[in-house]
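quick one before i forget lol
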Amino acid sequence: MAHTTRPDARPSIGELVSSLSEKLSQLIRDEIRLAKAELAIKAKHAGVGIGLFGAAAFLGFFGFAALVTTAILGLAHAVPAWLAALIVAVVLLLVAGILGAVGKRALDQSKPPGPERAQASIKADVAAVKEGLHS
């Protein structure tokens, strides 16, 4: 944008507002591009992490199943095999029930998730703009 030459060589209010608008738009576009790039990188890392976590959970499940089988086989030396399996199954179901109850209590106590920091930041930005307009 070409500035008109004025005798005092200072841009007019209209030119300043126009320039501010253009620069603010460019700043917002640049910030959005930066945010997209950061999110893409983080999403890639998160995808790899989730995949590895899934593989670990899968193998952990089978490892736990092998331990349960070992417990049944070990207990089968003291009692009949069917009773050993029943005892281990009841213990596992009791532990699962306790964990489920504790988890439900934790969920009941949690408040709905929200972007609290982002909301606070936006409120601060709005307040700063209002303050700037009133000065």
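fyi The two ends are 28 Å apart (CA to CA).
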